[in-house]
Specification:
Protein name: Spore coat U domain-containing protein
Strand order of the largest sheet: 1-6-4-3-7-9
CATH architecture of the largest domain: Sandwich
CATH topology of the largest domain: Immunoglobulin-like
Pfam family, one: SCPU
Shape: rod-shaped
Organism: Diaphorobacter aerolatus
Length: about 290
């Protein structure tokens, strides 16, 4: 379920006359009330709970009527009222009205730190109420404050928050100039910005262009020869834990729902014997979850 997601639904209300109803037409008022739901103690916003367990992690949502107004109840703040329904009598005829409704999760209602899983709330029993005013003669009474239950219309609201990861940015790794034989090693750092859903375990794999599985790559001379310069990729600043693309060498993390910056530590060894020039390599970065 994405931020800003919405789904449309409807409630069909059917009113029928009885064979014993001798009046040609009967005026009917119908009021539809929706409560807080099984997972929520509040009206605005209503809530779905992880696995339907009230008190667990929750997802806020709204139920709106056809005018994009809060779909409430006789208790708060107002139900949906059908006030002009006419049901023909004498013969068991009926009249059906369809009431549109919309469920909405806005961009401000879905925090990034939500745990993946199924969120649901049940609207059964006392969480729905249908009140009817149908006088034999005349205008129906206002049913908008009536709490008498003539019928219910149970339903369930659910949304799936999937496991998800994405890499947003990867910075370049730039080593300082190397003098060659007799010079010391060179260190450099790059950064990977990754965002995963809350509690989602993930792994980041690094694969140099030579397909090394343990992060041992080679930068190629860009012009004037075929020399190359070796480099190594590591997970820690001490440069003792290799970073490759195998289960024994890739990076493991757990999503927080927010962007996490993961440093990559690089090393070019000392005493290089290579043609002077610019050297470059590309590294494939992938995230699995």
């Amino acid at each position: 379920m994405a931020r800003g997601a919405s789904i449309n639904g409807s409630i069909a209300v059917k009113c029928s006359s009885e064979w014993t109803d001798f009046w040609s037409n009967r005026n009917v008022a119908v009021c539809l009330s929706i409560g807080t739901g099984s997972a929520s103690a509040s009206w605005e916003p209503r809530q779905m709970a992880l696995n339907g367990t009230r008190g667990a992690a929750s997802l806020n949502f709204q139920i709106l009527n056809s005018d994009n107004v809060f779909f409430g109840s006789a208790y708060k703040p107002r139900p949906v009222v059908i006030s002009s329904l006419q049901v023909p009598g004498r013969g068991g005829t009926s009249q059906t009205v369809t009431i549109p409704m919309r469920g909405l999760i806005s961009s401000t209602q879905m925090p990034a730190t939500m745990a993946p899983g199924t969120y649901r709330s049940s609207f059964g029993g006392s969480n729905t109420l249908l009140a009817v005013s149908s006088p034999t003669i005349g205008t129906p009474a206002d049913c908008s404050t009536t709490t008498n239950v003539d019928a219910t219309f149970p339903f369930e609201v659910s949304a799936e928050v999937p496991n998800f990861c994405a890499i947003s940015t990867v910075s370049d790794m730039q080593f300082a100039d190397v003098a060659g034989i007799g010079d010391t090693s060179r260190n450099a750092v790059a950064n990977i910005a990754v965002q995963c859903t809350y509690t989602t375990p993930y792994k980041i794999n690094l694969t140099p262009s030579n397909a090394s599985t343990n992060g041992q790559g080679r930068m190629a001379l860009q012009s004037g020869g075929t020399d190359s310069v070796p480099y190594s990729l590591f997970q820690n600043a001490a440069r003792t834990v290799a970073w490759g693309n195998q289960s024994s060498s890739n990076y493991s993390g757990t999503g927080s729902g927010l962007v996490q910056n993961v440093p990559v530590y690089g090393l070019v060894p000392a005493n290089l014997d290579a043609t002077p020039g610019n050297y470059r390599d590309s590294v494939q970065v992938t995230v699995t979850y």
